[in-house]
Every structure is written in structure tokens, then in C-alpha cells.
Amino acid sequence: MNDLNKVSISERLGSNLSLFWKENKQFFLLLFCIVFFKSAIADLSSISGASMQPSLLDGDKVWVNKLAYDVKIPFTEISLAELSDPNRGDVVIIDSKKADKRLVKRIVGLPGDTVYMQNNALVINGEAASYEVLSRDDEAIIILEELPDKAHQARLSNRFVSRTARSYGPTVVPEDQYFVLGDNRDNSADSRVYSFIPREEIIGRSNSVVFSLDSDNNYLPRGERFLAGIDQD
Hints:
Blueprint: H1 3-40, E1 42-46, E2 60-65, E3 70-72, E4 79-82, E5 91-96, E6 101-109, E7 114-118, E8 121-124, E9 127-128, E10 130-136, E11 140-147, E12 150-157, E13 168-172, E14 177-181, H2 191-194, E15 197-198, E16 202-206, E17 209-214, E18 220-221
Antiparallel strand pairs: 1-2, 2-17, 3-4, 5-6, 5-16, 6-14, 7-8, 7-13, 8-9, 10-11, 11-12, 14-15, 17-18
């Protein structure tokens, strides 16, 4: 192939690429904006399993506010600025290195807190949480757990469970780390398994379900959970 043919092929290739970009640049710019938005601002996260019942159900898609606590460099976990601190009771999405997967749990212990559990009863900094039974059946009891500054529902199994798994501590939460639990206390791998959660592994906070698909009913939508708040009683 002579130099003239090489130049001709190069010119045609350049012309085709230029035409392709002109015809599709709006699509690629839109795609970039969507990926940027999902990485740095907000996203959806899927709930798989029962660890957050009754607050969250298997098949829920929850809204994740990635600007709840930090501004991070897109596509990284590097924080540019801290906007606020995670609070007790927040439902957070965690990119857990120890679990090697994404977790959705509730913050119970803040940095410096002394956390103690005895048969699923929580004591934070020497103050015992108060409990109110909301409902019960053969499988579980649904309670309202009142922590300092926050109340939420939790599920306790009526079946035999190792009492060792229901107790923890006392232990002090290290600086820049958090103690998290699942609301389904007897069916959750959380800080009792993976230890404390570093702040940098917290992706964001969720306050609401966007929509929900029922895996026990042919993945039909659960209409009552459309845009439902997570901690509504």
C-alpha cells in the first residue's frame, strides 16, 4: 500500500468518526451526565434479602442521596468536602470492603459512643433504649425501638436464635467509624459480623423507597410502597 492510499484511508476514517460524533454527540453527552449523576449525586440501590425488615423489603428500590454527607470526586471514594455527619438512626448504603459487597443498614453507634447489646436490647452510652410492641405473630415480634433522638421499627424472631448473636460489647466506636445494625435483628450480617464501618465506605443516605417488586408474587409492583418513606409508622 503506497503513501497515497494510506492518506486516503486515514482521511475517510477521520471523516467517518467526525460524522459519527456529530450524529451521536447528544446521546453521549446525555449518557455522560447520567453516569456522572449516578456516581456523584444520587442513585438507586436494590434491597436483596430480609436484613432490614420491616423497614425495607426484598425487592425494594431505594433512593440514595450521595450528597447527604460528602462531596466526592466522581467515580471514586475520595471526599472533597464534608457536608454533614451521619446521624444515629440514618439508613445508609455502605460499600463494605470486609463484606465485599454493598450493604444497607441503620446507624446505631456514632464515633465515641459506647454500645452494648444484651439479648437484642440496646444500651447507648449507658442509656437503655425503650421498646414498644407493635405487633406479633408466630414468627416474629415487631417493635418500636426508641434510641436517643430517633425511633424506628425493628423485627425480633420468635424462633430459637443463639443468644450469643443477640449480645455484643460493651465496646467504644472508634473515631470516623460507625456501628450499624439491620432492623431485622436476628437475620442481619452487620457490625456484629463486619465490625465498625469507616466513614469513607458510606456511599449515602436513604429516606424513601422509589418502587418495589414482589419476588413472591411474580415480581409484580407493590403499589403501597411507591415513594414510601422508610421510617413511616
